[in-house]
# Entry
Amino acid sequence: MPPATDTALASTLRLAVMRLARRMRSERADTALTLTQIAALAMLERHGPLTPRELAAAERVTPPSMTRIAASLEAAGLATRTDHPSDGRQVLLAVSDEGVALLREDRRRRDAWLAQRLRELDQADRDVLRQAAQVLDRLAAA
Amino acid sequence: MPPATDTALASTLRLAVMRLARRMRSERADTALTLTQIAALAMLERHGPLTPRELAAAERVTPPSMTRIAASLEAAGLATRTDHPSDGRQVLLAVSDEGVALLREDRRRRDAWLAQRLRELDQADRDVLRQAAQVLDRLAAA
DNA sequence: GGGGAATCGTTAGCGGTGCGAACGACTTGT
DNA sequence: ACAAGTCGTTCGCACCGCTAACGATTCCCC
# Structure
């Protein structure tokens, strides 16, 4: 039975999301990059070059956190760092060719667990998730 | 437009869930207990007394992690620890009266942010989440 | 132009959360 | 009775986020 009230929905949804997040993180412990790194790299690819601050805002993370993430991506050769043409304070982060290749390659493998679980659901449940994914994204961005 | 393929759905859902999890964790930094502690305590309340190992399995966490969570709950007087009646190796964790009270009191406040966001959605989106919450929970448990 | 405020990215340090390996206490099975 | 297995714990590690503080640079306004 679905949760009836808004607060009940909030409780259920919160617990489910937290548990699923933990689960997904653990299900890909073998891969080279962490979810945080992948998310930042994917954002750079989707959105084009960004300053650390912009990228931090887009990922809802503080600038110091993004500094570390960007440093790890750069150290791995997956992202590049160039000086801002007109503002000496700023820096532009962009995905490198290696980063693009890794994203493409990783995209095929990284959702293996979740995609498999999704295939095990029936069509109605998948449709629910399909719509919910959009709503969840708006919630996270709100 | 909703994601079309299973892999696209997996990508979208994964990113949305991770971001929302991060968001929710940060949105309640003021409260006394962390989400992990609340989740464990709520599981104990829902399911009755459990051994650390059982609780770890239910929360999809390793026993060492649950040791620390249980210790913090016990130190806060929210959970009790009793020896297993017949097996000297085992221990039984249970919610204390204070724990029950805190859960009840906290339940009213802890979802404030999420519940408010939910109220800002339209009815259709809420219904989607209502159904999705169930599916997500099954996914996390799978 | 010059000087203070604002902005940017970074460094340093902290807390929370998870893991695996190793260990002692206890139980079980032979 | 003794070896093997189970349970909970301790220890050390890694990841991820935060705040506070700092130097470099730019902007604003006189």
Observations:
- Helices of chain B lie at 6-27, 35-47, 52-58, 63-75, 97-110, 112-120, 123-141.
- Residues 22, 25-26, 29, 51-53, 63-64, 66-67, 71, 87-91 of chain B lie near DNA strand D (CB under 10 Å from a C1').
- Residues 6-27 of chain B form the longest helix (22 residues).
- The mean pLDDT of chain B is 84.
